[in-house]
Design brief:
Elements: H1 3-10, E1 14-18, E2 24-27, H2 29-35, H3 39-42, E3 61-68, E4 74-84, E5 92-99, H4 101-104, H5 119-134, H6 143-156, E6 163-168, E7 176-183, H7 185-188, E8 194-196, H8 201-208, E9 212-214, H9 224-229, E10 234-241, E11 252-260, H10 268-311, H11 317-331, E12 336-343, E13 346-354, E14 365-367, H12 372-380, E15 384-386, H13 396-402, E16 407-415, E17 418-427, H14 435-494, H15 506-534, E18 541-545, H16 546-556, E19 562-564, E20 571-575, H17 576-592, E21 602-608, E22 614-621, H18 655-665, E23 669-676, E24 680-688
Parallel strand pairs: 19-21
Antiparallel strand pairs: 1-2, 1-5, 3-4, 4-5, 6-7, 6-11, 7-8, 9-10, 10-11, 12-13, 12-17, 13-14, 15-16, 16-17, 18-20, 21-22, 22-24, 23-24
Membrane topology: Multi-pass membrane protein
Enzyme class: transferase
Keywords: ATP-binding, Kinase, Membrane, Nucleotide-binding, Phosphoprotein, Transferase, Transmembrane, Transmembrane helix, Two-component regulatory system
C-alpha cells in the first residue's frame, strides 16, 4: 500500500472521487463504513444509481444534507465538495462526507435518551440540546440564570447518578464565584450563594486553567459542610475560560462542577465527557455574556441620545442640572447622584438626587483638593472609581446621607479641556461601579458638559443682560428729568415768558430744540429697549386704522414721504402709540440712510394681503441699501451700518430692534424684504386684522 493509500484508509470520514460524468472512481474505507457497499460494487457506477438519498453539490464548499445508507437508514451529514483536476482528463469532483449523527443524534429523532448511547453519541446528543438551549430567547433580565439552569440540567444527563452546578465569576468581584444554576438536590442548595475562589477547588481550577478533581469533598471546598451533609464526596471542577476578554475585561467566565456521592474518581472517558461539555458550557455562557453586553451597549447609547435630547430642551441651569442628576442615577443604577459646579478652586453643590430621599446641602462649598477622589478626577480628566468620600468636613445632614455609601464613581464634565462640573454617583451596596458603568458615564459626559456649559453661559448672559437693562432703565430715567427741564425752558424762551428774545437767538434756539429732540428720542429708545427686555412695557390695545397712522407719521416726517393708501380703512388691533413708533422708526431709518447729494425718496404703502387675515405696511426707499451679509443682523440691538463712502448717521442702532420687538408683541412680524447697496431697501410690516375688518 502506498503512503497516499495508507493516509486515505486512515481517514474516518467518507472520501469519494467522481469523474466528470458523476461516476465513482474512488471509494474509501470510510465510505464503505458509512454507506455499506464495497468499493468494487460502486466503482464506475453513477453516484445517483446508488440510491443514497444524494443531492448534487455544486460550487464547492460545505453543505449539510440528509443521506441514506445501503440498508435504508437515514443520517445527517456535512458534505464538502472540491474540484478534481487530473492531467489530460476533464475535471471531476472529490466529496468528503462527515457523519453528524454522533453530534446531533439520529436523523428524525432529537429526543433519544442518552443512557443507551456510547460516549461520542452521548456528547453529541448533549451538544444538540445545548444548541437548542443557547438559541432560545429568554427574558433579558433572567437570560443568564435561565441559561445556567438549562445547562446544568443537560450536565446532569451526561452520566448516571451525577449532579451539576454552573457558577459564574461576577464582573465586579473577580475573586469569587456565584452559583447561578444547578440540577440535583445537593447542587440546587448552592444556587444564589457566592464563595471566594481562594481555597476552593473551583479556585484551583481557575488558577491552573485546567480541571481539578477531588474525592474528599467533606474536607475541602467552598462549603464542605453543606456538601457533606448532602452526601457529596466526589467533585470535578472545570474552569470556564475565554481566550478573548469579555467586554468587562474578564477571562475567567465561571466554573462547571459535576458532583456525585460515591468517593470514586471519574474515569478517563467520563472526564473527557465532562471536560468537553465544559467547553460547550463556556461557549454558551460567553455567547450570552456578549449578547447581554451588546444589549447593554445599545442601552447606553440610547441613554446618551436620550440625555442629549432631554438636556437640549432647556437652557435653564436648574432644569438642566435636575434632569442630568436623575438621568445619571437611573442610567448607572446608582443610589445617589450629586452635581457640583467648579467655582475657581472650590466645588459648589448645585443639585442632588437620592433614591432614599435623603437631602443634600445645595450650595455647600468645599475645596477641590479636600477630597482625594475628586481632585484626581479633575487632574486626570477621567472617571475615578473608589469608596466613600471623606466626611470629616461635611455638615451633619450630608454625613447622614453619605455614611452608608460603599462605592463611588466620580466623573469630571469637561468642555474644551476645562472641567466645568463634577458628577459623583454613589452605591450603598455591592456591586461596585465597573467598566460598563464607566463607559455609560463617558457617554453621558460629553452631552452633559455641553449642556451645562451652555446653561451656565446662558445664565451669565441673562444676568448680564438684566444688569445692562437695569442700567439703561436707570440712565434713561436720570436723563429724562434734565431733558424735560431743558425742553421746558426752551419753550418758555420761544414763548417770550422772560421777555422778548433778541432776533440773534432764533438760530441757536432752533438748534437747541433739535438736539433736545434727538436726545429725547435716544432716551426713549433706551428706555423702551430696557422695558422690552425686562417685560415691563405696558400696552393699551385698541382698534386702529393702519392708513391713518401711516399718514400721521408721513406728515410729521422731516422729509417728504409718498403715501399709497387704499380707499377703505385698514383696521388692526394694536397699541396705537407703539404702532406709531414702529412706523416712525421705519420711515426715519429710510430718510437717515439716503445717498449723498440725492434727495430722499421714501414710499409708504398700506394694503391687505389677499387670501389671509394679515394687513401690510411697506416702507421702501432708494437710499444706500445694506450689504447682503448684514441681513437679519439689521434687527439686532445697537446694530449700525458703517459705510466709509457716506457720512455717518447719528443714532443708537436700536430703531429696527425696537420696531421688530414691538411688532412681535402684537402678533405680527417685520421683515427685510430686499436690500441692495446703492439702490435702497424695502421693509414690510405684517399685522393681524382686527375682528370683522
Amino acid at each position: 500500500m502506498t503512503d497516499a493509500a495508507a493516509v486515505l484508509a486512515s481517514i474516518p470520514d467518507a472520501v469519494i472521487a467522481l469523474d466528470h460524468q458523476g461516476c465513482v472512481r474512488l471509494w474509501s474505507r470510510g465510505a464503505r463504513r458509512l454507506f455499506g457497499p464495497e468499493a468494487a460494487e460502486v466503482t464506475g457506477r453513477p453516484l445517483d444509481e446508488l440510491r443514497l438519498g444524494w443531492l448534487s453539490v455544486e460550487g464547492g464548499g460545505a453543505h449539510r444534507l440528509l443521506l441514506r445508507r445501503s440498508d435504508g437508514r437515514a443520517f445527517n451529514a456535512v458534505v464538502t465538495a472540491t474540484p478534481l483536476t487530473l492531467p489530460g482528463e476533464p475535471d471531476g469532483q472529490v466529496l468528503i462526507v462527515k457523519n453528524l449523527e454522533p453530534w446531533i443524534g439520529p436523523a428524525g429523532d432529537v429526543s433519544e435518551p442518552t443512557e443507551g448511547l456510547d460516549l461520542e453519541e452521548r456528547l453529541g446528543a448533549t451538544f444538540r440540546a445545548v444548541m437548542e438551549v443557547t438559541g432560545a430567547d429568554f427574558d433579558p433580565g433572567e437570560s443568564l440564570e435561565e441559561l445556567a439552569r438549562q445547562l446544568a440540567i443537560q450536565g446532569r444527563r451526561l452520566l448516571p447518578g451525577v449532579e451539576c452546578m454552573v457558577a459564574v465569576v461576577p464582573a465586579g468581584r473577580q475573586d469569587s464565584f456565584h452559583c447561578l444554576g444547578a440540577a440535583g438536590p445537593a447542587a440546587e442548595r448552592l444556587i444564589g450563594r457566592t464563595y471566594p475562589l481562594e481555597g476552593s477547588i473551583a479556585g484551583r481550577a481557575v488558577a491552573a486553567g485546567s480541571p481539578q478533581e477531588s474525592v474528599r469533598m467533606d474536607q475541602e471546598g467552598a462549603d464542605p459542610g453543606l456538601l457533606a451533609s448532602a452526601g457529596i464526596l466526589t467533585l470535578r471542577a472545570v474552569p470556564l475560560l475565554s481566550r478573548q476578554p469579555l467586554p468587562d475585561g474578564r477571562t475567567a467566565v465561571g466554573v462547571l462542577t459535576v458532583l456525585r456521592r460515591q468517593p470514586v474518581h471519574f474515569s478517563s472517558e467520563e472526564r473527557r465527557l465532562i471536560d468537553d461539555f465544559g467547553a460547550l458550557v463556556s461557549l454558551s455562557i460567553q455567547r450570552a455574556e456578549f449578547r447581554a453586553a451588546a444589549d447593554r451597549s445599545m442601552e447606553r447609547l440610547q441613554l446618551a441620545i436620550d440625555v442629549a435630547l432631554d438636556l437640549a430642551q432647556s437652557l435653564d441651569v436648574q432644569d438642566v442640572v435636575r434632569r442630568l442628576v436623575r438621568r445619571a442615577t437611573v442610567g448607572s443604577r446608582a443610589d445617589r447622584c450629586v452635581l457640583l459646579r467648579i467655582d475657581g478652586a472650590e466645588t459648589v453643590v448645585e443639585d442632588a438626587y437620592d433614591v432614599d430621599g435623603l437631602e443634600d446641602v445645595v450650595g455647600f462649598r468645599q475645596p477641590v483638593g479636600a477630597q482625594q477622589l475628586m481632585s484626581r478626577a479633575v487632574f486626570t480628566r477621567a472617571p475615578v472609581l473608589g469608596g466613600r468620600y471623606d466626611l470629616t468636613s461635611m455638615p451633619s445632614s450630608l454625613r447622614r446621607a453619605l455614611e452608608s455609601v460603599r462605592h463611588t464613581a466620580t466623573l469630571p464634565l469637561s468642555y474644551a479641556g476645562e472641567v466645568v462640573a463634577i458628577l459623583v454617583l454613589s452605591r450603598r451596596s455591592d456591586p461596585p461601579f465597573g467598566r460598563e458603568e464607566v463607559e455609560t458615564l463617558r457617554l453621558l459626559a460629553g452631552p452633559a458638559a455641553l449642556a451645562l456649559r451652555n446653561s451656565f453661559l446662558y445664565a451669565q448672559t441673562h444676568e448680564a443682560g438684566r444688569v445692562k437693562s437695569d442700567f439703561l432703565d436707570m440712565a434713561a430715567h436720570e436723563l429724562r428729568a434734565p431733558l424735560t427741564v431743558i425742553g421746558g425752558y426752551l419753550s418758555m424762551l420761544r414763548e417770550e415768558a422772560f421777555g422778548p428774545a433778541p432776533p440773534s437767538w432764533s438760530g441757536p434756539l432752533e438748534a437747541l430744540e433739535m438736539k433736545v429732540g434727538e436726545l429725547t428720542r435716544l432716551v426713549d429708545d433706551l428706555l423702551t429697549a430696557a422695558r422690552l427686555e425686562t417685560g415691563r412695557l405696558n400696552s393699551v390695545i385698541e382698534t386702529v386704522d393702519l392708513s391713518e397712522v401711516a399718514a400721521q407719521v408721513a406728515e410729521a416726517a422731516s422729509e417728504p414721504v409718498e403715501l399709497l393708501l387704499p380707499e377703505d380703512p385698514v383696521m388692526v388691533l394694536v397699541d396705537r402709540i407703539q404702532l406709531r413708533r414702529v412706523v416712525e422708526h421705519l420711515v426715519a431709518n429710510a430718510i437717515a440712510y439716503r445717498r449723498v447729494d440725492v434727495p430722499p425718496s421714501v414710499r409708504v404703502e398700506v394694503s391687505a394681503v389677499e387670501g389671509t387675515h394679515l394687513r401690510r405696511l411697506a416702507v421702501e426707499d432708494e437710499g444706500r441699501g445694506m450689504p447682503p451679509d448684514l441681513g437679519e443682523r439689521a434687527f439686532d440691538r445697537f446694530q449700525r451700518m458703517e459705510d466709509h463712502d457716506e457720512p455717518a448717521v447719528p443714532g443708537t442702532g436700536l430703531g429696527l430692534y425696537i420696531a421688530r420687538e414691538l411688532t412681535e408683541r402684537h402678533g405680527g412680524r417685520l421683515e427685510l424684504e430686499w436690500t441692495e447697496p446703492g439702490r435702497g431697501s424695502r421693509f414690510v410690516l405684517y399685522l393681524p386684522a382686527a375682528a370683522g375688518a
